[in-house]
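Structure tokens please, single chain.
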Amino acid sequence: MIRLLLLSVLIIAPVSASAFERVTEKGAFLTLISGKSLSNRLYGVTLQVTSDGSIAGDALGWDITGAWNWQNGYFCRDMAWGGDPIGYNCQLVEAKGSEMRFTSDQGTGDSASFKLR
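Here you go.
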């Protein structure tokens, strides 16, 4: 019984230690992305989000362009993919090691995870 309890603690502990943490400050966000690209290989997306408020990259061979700002603890962006507007959206940002997760509609919508490379 004690061995089972100990095993369950060892299994659970690493999961909680590597949980995503919310990024609420623009400065912390900029520190995370500085000099890096956001990449999601599953969807073929690579993005550069720069400190001057621009977004550039590509997905599946089509250009992504846009602009972003930080408002009330959220990453707010307006983008276009292949010239088609994606639209303005403020997103919850979370980080874990070299991974970032963006959740649309201030954390109530769909999520996308990216590797920092």
